[in-house]
Amino acid sequence: MPNAIVILNYNGLAHLQTYLPSVVENSPNWDIFIADNASTDTSVSFVAQAFPLIKIIQLAQNFGFAEGYNQALATIEGKYEHYFILNSDVRLRANWDLPLLDFLEKNPGTAAVGPKILSDRQPDYFEHAGAAGGYLDTFYFPFCRGRIFESVEQDLQQYDGAQEVTWVSGAALLIRSKDFHEASGFDPAFFAHMEEIDLGLRLASVGKKLFCIPQSKVFHLGGGTLSYDNPKKAYLNFRNNLWMIVKNQQRFLVPVLFIRMALDGIAAIQFLVKGKPQLTWKIFLAHMALYRHFITFYNKRQKAPARPFKYHGLIIWDYFGKGVRNFSALNKRKFHS
N or C: which end of the chain has fewer CB within 10 A? Predict the structure, then answer.
C-alpha cells in the first residue's frame, strides 16, 4: 500500500509558501494531502495552483488539530499503510523517510515513530516541540531528549541513537494507519495540544511502542500557530494535561491529580509574580474545565492500564531543585515501562 503525508492547514498561506516546496521536493514516493480547516485566506487556492498534484481535503469548519486530523484521515482510511502527520511549518530534506519506514518494517510492535526535530531558526539546536523524543514524568510533566521545560540543548549528535519514548511530536509523526484508527485517533475534546501524548498513552495500553529515530531529521519553525507564551496555548496545555491524567492514570489517581494541580498552582503564582496575570487566569480556567468535565474523562479511562516507556522521577524537582538542564544528566534507571 502507498503512504500519505497529511498536513493540516488553517489560514496558513505563509507557512505553505515557505515549507511546502521542501515537502514536495523530498517526498517523491508519497501522496500528499492538505486537510483544510475551513480557511478564510487564499491558502487553498495557492496549493491548487502551485501544486496541482497535491490532494485537498476540504473540511466544513475549523475542527482544531485533533478532530481536524480525525476527519481528514477518515476520508482516506484503508487506502494507505502509513500516515505522516506533519505541521505546515516543517522543512524536510532528502531521504527523511527512509530511516523511519525501515524501523517500522523491522519492528512490527512499534505503532509510531518520529524524527529528530531541529529548530528551523537555529538548525544546530533542538526544537522545543519534540526534540529527540518525548517523555512524561510521574506527574505527567512532558519533556524531551534535548529539551527540559524552557532549556533547549544544542544538537551535538548526543542523542542520535534510536530510543523508545512516551510520545512522538504531532509536528512530525509517522504512524501505522491501522494503529491510528484502532486507537480511534486523537481525542477531539483536546482540540489542540497534547493530543499526541494522549494517543501515545492509549497505544501503550494495548502493548504498542513508540520510538524516536534520529537518523531522520526535520526542521520545525515552532510556535507557528500560537507562540509558546500565548495565553490560549497555556490554557490548552494545562487543561489537556489534567484531562490526560484522568484518562490514563490507573493507580493513585486522586493523589497524582491533587499534587499535579498543586504544582499548577505554584506555576500560577510564579506567572503572577512575573507580571503575566493572563497566564495565571488561564491556569484557573483550566482547573475549572477539569471540574466541569471530570466525569466525562473519567468514563474515557482505558480498560487496560497504559504502560508507556516513561520517566519514573520528578522532572520538576530535577530541573528547579537540582538544576538539571540537560537530558543526559537524568538518571537513566528511572526510564522504563
Answer: N
